[in-house]
Amino acid sequence: MSNQSTQPIRLIVGLGNPGTDYALTRHNAGFWFVDLLAERHGGTFKSDSKFHGQVCRILIGGRECWLLKPTAFMNRSGQSVSSLAKYYKIGLEEMLVAHDELDMAPGVVRLKFGGGHAGHNGLRDIVSAMGGREFWRLRIGIDHPGSAREVVNYVLGRPSKQDAESIAGALEDGERVLPDLLEGQFQKAMHLLHSD
User: Fold this and answer.
1) pLDDT tens-digit readout, 73-123
2) I want to staple 16 with a disulfide (CB 3.0 to 4.6 A). Which of 31, 49, 152, 185 is the partner?
3) Is 41 annotated as catalytic?
4) CA-to-CA distance for 174 and 76, rounded, in angstroms?
5) What's the rounded Cα separation, in Å, for the pair 74 and 69?
C-alpha cells in the first residue's frame, strides 16, 4: 500500500443502474452514496449528455468535488467516467468509485486503492475506459447470496429492511470521512473506517 496516492479526491463516481426499477436494488449502493453526499452538501444532480450521466458539484472546506452517476447501464459506466475525467483533467488517482461489494457484510464499508475488478462489471468497464486501475474504491458491503449462480438476481434485488438500515449506516460512515478524502488524508480516513 505504500505506493498509494495522496492526491486529493476530485471526482466521486457512484455505480448503479438508471431507472426506477433499479433504484432500490443492492447493485445501486454506489448511487445511494453519491445521493447522500449531494443531499448533505447542498448539491443537485443534473443530467449532462456529454458526460452520459448525472453530474453534481459540491464544495467542502473550499475544495471542489464532482459527483457522477453514469446513466448508461453498469457495464457501460466507463464512457461516462472517462469523458468527465478528461474534460476536467482529473487523474485516475484523484477518483473514488463507490460500489456494492459482495464479499463484505451489510454495514461494512472499506477504502481500497487499485486492485482488480473482482467480476464487478462497472469497475471492469472503468478500468478499460480509463486505461488503468490505480484509483480509489469505496466498497459498500451488501453480502453474498452464497452461490455464484444467484449473484445476478441477488444484486438486482432489494435488501431486507435490516440490511438496508445497515447499508445506510455504512454510507453515513463513508460520508463522515469525505473531508479527509478531499484533502488526500487517506490513512486517516482508512483508520476511521477500518477500525470498527
Assistant:
1) 899 999 999 999 999 999 999 999 999 999 999 999 999 999 988 889 999
2) 31
3) no
4) 25
5) 10
Q: Which of 188, 173, 75, 83 is nearest to 121 (CA)?
A: 75
Q: What are phi and psi of 41, to 5 degrees?
A: -115, 25
122: nearest Cα among 171, 51, 69, 159: 69
* Per-residue pLDDT reduced to its tens digit, 18-64: 999 999 999 999 999 999 999 999 999 999 999 999 999 999 888 99
Residues near 38 by beta carbon (within 8 Å), at least 6 away in sequence = 44, 45, 56, 58, 67
Q: Quick one: fold of 11-194?
A: Rossmann fold (3.40.50)
User: Which is catalytic among the residues 27, 52, 99, 120?
Assistant: 27
**Dihedral angle, C-alpha 73, 31, 90, 127, nearest 10 °:** -50
